[in-house]
Amino acid sequence: MADPAVASGGSLNAGGRSGSGKAASSPAENYHLARRRTLQVVVSALLTECGFESAEKAAVESLTEMMQSYLNEIGRCAKAYCEHTARSVPTLSDVVVTLVEMGFNVDTLPVYAKRSQRMVITAPPVTNPPVAPKALTAGQKRTHPAHIPSHFPEFPDPHTYIKTPTFREPVSDYQVVREKAASQRRDVERALTRFMAKTGETQSLFKDDITAFPLIAARPCVIPYLSALLPSELELQTLEETDSSEQDDQTDSENTAGNIITDDPGADKENSMLPPSGVVPSVKASEENMIDNPYLRPVKKPKVRRKK
Amino acid sequence: MNRKKDKGFESPRPFKLTHQAVCINNINFQRKSVIGYVELTIFPTVVNLNRIKLNSKQCRIYRVRVNELEAPFNYNDPTLEVCHHESKQRNLNYFSSAYTAAVSAVDPDAGHGELVIKVPSELWKQGDDLKVLKVYIEFSLDQPKGGLHFVVPDVEGSMAERGAHVFSFGYQNSTRFWFPCVDSYSELCTWKLEFTVDASMVAVSCGDLVETIYTHDMRKKTFHYVLPIPTAAPNISLAVGPFEILVDPYMHEVTHFCLPQLLPLLKHSMSFLHEIFEFYEEILTCRYPYSCFKTVFVDEAYVQVSSYASMSIFSTNLLHSAMIIDQTPLTRRCLAQALAQQFFGCFISRMSWADEWVLKGISGYIYGLYLKKTFGVNEYRHWIKEELDKIVDYELKMGGVLLHPTFSGGKEKDNPTPHLHFSIKHPHTLSWEYYKMFQCKAHLVMRLIENRISMEFMLQVFNKLLSLASTASSQKYQSHMWSQMLVSTHGFLKSISNVSGKDIGPLIKQWVDQSAVVKFFGSFAFNRKRNVLELEIRQDYTSSGTQKYVGPIKVTVQELDGSFNHTLQIEENSLKHDIPCHSKSRRNKKKKIPLMNGEEVDMDLSAMDADSPLLWIRIDPDMSILRKVEFEQADFMWQYQLRFERDVVAQEEAISALEKFPTPASRMALTDILEHEQCFYKVRMQACFCLAKIANAMVSTWQGPPAMKSLFTRMFCCKSCPNIVKTNNFINFQSYFLQKTMPVAMALLRDVQNLCPKDVLNFILDLIKYNDNRKNKFSDNYYRADLIDALTNSLTPAISINNEVRTVDNLNADVRLILEEITRFLNMEKLLPSFRNTITVSCLRAIRQLQKNGHIPSDPSLFMSYAEYGHFVDVRVAALEAVVDYTRVERSSAELQWLLNMVQNDPAHYVRHKILGMLAKNPPFTKATDSALCNEALVDQLWKLMNSGTSHDWRLRCDAVNLYYTLFGLTRPSCLPLPELGLVLNLKEKKAVLNPIIKPELGVSAVIDTPASIGIHGIGMGYSTPDPIASGVCGVGQPPQGLKRKADTPLGSPPEPGQILQQQDEEGSRGRYKIRFNTMEEEDIDMETVHDSQAFIHHHLNLLERPSTPGKEPPSVEQSLLSMPATPVPSFSKETTSSSSKHGGEHGHHHHHHHHEHKKKKKKHKHKHKHKHKHESKDKEKDRERDNSHAYSNSPASGRSLRSPSLSD
Prior knowledge:
- The structure holds 2 protein chains of 2 kinds.
- Chain A contains 10 helices and 2 strands; from the N terminus they run H-H-H-H-H-H-E-E-H-H-H-H.
- By secondary structure, chain A is an all-alpha fold.
- In chain A, helix 3 packs across helix 4.
- Chain A is elongated.
- Chain B is an alpha+beta fold.
- In chain B, 55% of the residues are buried.
- At the A-B interface, helix 6, strand 2, helix 7, helix 8 and helix 9 of A face strand 13, helix 5, helix 7, helix 8 and helix 21 of B.
């Protein structure tokens, strides 16, 4: 039961460390990680070829880093040569020139490739390049029109210039909605009460396992009737939401009380009684400021001669 | 009957109270103390009034002055400790008689009191001219245990900020707990009330608030009230607190008060009070008698509703917001009850305890009329049936309830209710349950009277009583007229006969003068040849609580051709009645069938017996007899009755009968009713439970889904997804109540393994899960609480393998689900509490049920924490109920001790009362069972509790007595070791019982005299014996006794004629005597003659109180005559004529005869008495001196009483 909590806690920590981008860049990151892992395997294989039995992780890491830089440099140079000749895709000669430029003896390459102790490494797992999250699809991705050469960069994702949907289509199935509302409320309630139980004093129904079904301890309160009688804020809020005018509610509930509990001719009488009583408040309104009630009168000052 | 001769009111006191001032000038909330004084203005009605008896309990009295002269006084309360001696005595019989005696000894209705003030001798010389006496008493109360209740929340801030308040409370006449007074409903006077309270507080009391004045330091203010309408002390009350004030928007003379922060609730709850006012004023054709009305809502109320003159004190828990459905009708009912009691109970008071039934009856009856008008005829008839069932069940179980007890004498044999373990002679000795049933029966009997004389006449009678009273109340200076404001059984019955011209004597005799109810058994056969219904109605009148009924009874027969009423005469037991039928069986199959109300309906007649035209039969359909009817008719007849009879009572009767017929046809009938929207919702609710029962009985043959499930789905679930309940909308209250009830009933279903069916449980869990109140304008707290109750109902005992300890691991999967819901609900309640914490209450019950069924370990600690002071009272009671249940099941003495400890120490009186009530209802053991709990220590503890521990609260003491009775019975508890020399001691015991009651010198047992020997003797001098004046009049006040005594036992007892006799010694007394007794000569004479021997003691006791200066008396009497205005004569003569017009025919001659006799006997008496007088006076004077020597050495407030050796032997 506690697992989800732990898991979510873990993810919370991860989030804190790696910033916020995790969810969005996750496929791309995975792609790079996979490449790097392959490179690491390559380095390890080469080391084994050279007769190493084991290597420190840091050493392997450094070698991988060097290898990666080297390969990067080859790629960058080859691309530069290719673009220099106004092409967009490097050719073999571009690479050869690059290698030569970097001081590598190209002739040794075929021999090295055909060496007998060469280790075969499995191909890196095919990881698809990251795709835009589905939520962000908006409209059709446009291809280049005919007059634009295909080597020009593609159009950006349509959501960047049409619209970026930030919500999902609401589920309209009544049953699912109710189901969801119910379980959501239950989850919230459960989490809340568990939190309260964890942070405060509890009572238990079982002696062997005090943590099972923890009950928030009963605490006597000084004026118990207040909390028991006054509607909670939640209820008040609901009340405001459900009906706008209080007046409405008043007459409404009164009428229904009369009608529903009585189901005899007397109910009619009850209603016939209402008009006169309804008149009274209007009278009252006019008299409002002249109510003479002894409890509303000001308190008198003591008379001097008055004996206490 | 003898009642007929009872005329106007005779005060048991030798004085008339005309005015009382109460001034409380300090109320200290911190110390819970009160300081004040009272001043009573009294008119002596005898010459040489030398002793004034007043009521006062627990007050510390500092000084007493009579007309500015210091007066010695004596304060003794025999009820503080009922039994002093015989420490080994542990039998309830003994206690009960001693307790009754103690209560009698201070009974204001007999002229007694705890406080005896000796009028300074200077004044009795002067008293010859019967001048007004002003009795001034300074007193204080420190931490009162009864009478006044302080609620002081323990928080920071001033008392007003803390919501501290204080209010008066009590059961019946209990005003003596908070100020000295004549604590009798029959002693009326006008009032001036003054309360000085903190400036931030309001003091609400009876009468009109004349002014409010600051004290000189401006930190306090004084509320001055004047109550010009003569009112009895028990109807005076007070509430002080930082109340919020609401002037009623419809009636400006009505003011409502509530505790801080509750004003919005108060506004809503009081918004319809004016309708109740209008209703009562209209039906009684009489304005509300007081010039103002106040409602005060207080915390920790003693009872939900208590009415006092021009104000009522309610429990604050009655307040509710507009969102609450269930509480609304309950609160309205409480207000209606309170208001009915304003007319009958406060404004109109009673002459004696025996007349209480009239007041309770009338107020209950007009309250019923209000119910009928507001909630409808169905609700009213349902309520009447409920009340009738209640009283019938109680009387059959516990024995009869007697409305108008008459006590013909002290003899225990004459006890009208020997089946009870308490005396019904005083309200303060009654068990609470009995008193509730008494009220219930009283209003039912009023309804019977209405049936007999019609409602119109009934209301005329009430109007007459009220207008007489209001005329009398306006007579400011003629206090003798005020007795018109007192109602008596006799006066009430006379009004009835005057107004209606009908003789309701037999009815009164049957239900008022006699206890018990009627039990009928009915069965029938249809004689086809004669086309006659042979109805047999038998009675059981031998078992306890039953009586024989003779008289008319209505029988309604629904035949094919219509409904016919027949009135049969019940003459002797087991009588067969032949009722001719109107229709031949099955003539017109197609014809519609006419019902009683004129409706014509189609019926499917295939179910009925082809030979008989009878559809159903009802005995006493109008409930015009207090009875239980067990009627046998075929199942199809009950089904027809349920479906087609329009009376809700008939439908409910049919439902209970159908429980015994678990057939598909019954199922159909019940289901139809359930679905029938025109049907009264309470009938439909009852049908739910019946359906569950018959479904269980039919479990092996039941077809289809569990009972009610598809019905509920159809009514309350979504059309598109039938497993999900609609979001709550409680705008239709009928459906709301049905929606609440059905799951609770469904959870009672059981499958063949006697378990709750899985799909029912899941169904309920789904209801909880999908419950959605967001769109509802009403709170769903009661609905959710009912869903928890449904879960509770679904529980069945756990299968336990060799008593293993219950752990989380071996928890049943279903139970785990239930427990999870309960845990969540209970925890949520801490964060978002529901109205009246209904959900906590249901959860606690559920947890106890889980424990009891062995699913979780049985453990009271959770309940004990919820039972603590500081939780909402409903929660506490629910938790305590669980602890009580635990105590019984586990026979745990620790918990029992804990409970008893709470009974003694809890601040809330209601909770203490409730604990004892619950213990008596669900006792840890009974007299019939053996238990380790039953031991000497417990006996002693309980004995102490009722003997002295509960002296501050009559109700609690009676509760303790009840519990003692439940646990140990009437005799010595069996667990006590046999006393050494059992036989001798037994004898002693018997003697001990008799000793205080029977005066050996006389050989007459006289309960009234008991107090003397038990409590009071030795402390005061003359005080120890019943006041002769008082008792003498007491006899007059209850004349029936007088006559009865004459008939059977010449040595009868109490009404002590001492006073009367003495008056006769004196020449001049005659004139006055005539005024007092001219209308009741007969009894007077009888009493005197009859009590010759009694006179002996009375006389000699009397001497203590009488100054032996006979020579001075004649002139003083004449003075008295002069000082009394001549008004009484007309008033009495009016009474006389009206009564003679009634009884003149039969009694005229008789009357005359008696008169003669009277004179003769009087002479004789005189003679004897003079003699005795002389003889005894010497001895007594000696006694008196001796008593005197230590009487005043006692602290005035100490309840100690020493036993005077001179009289106890």
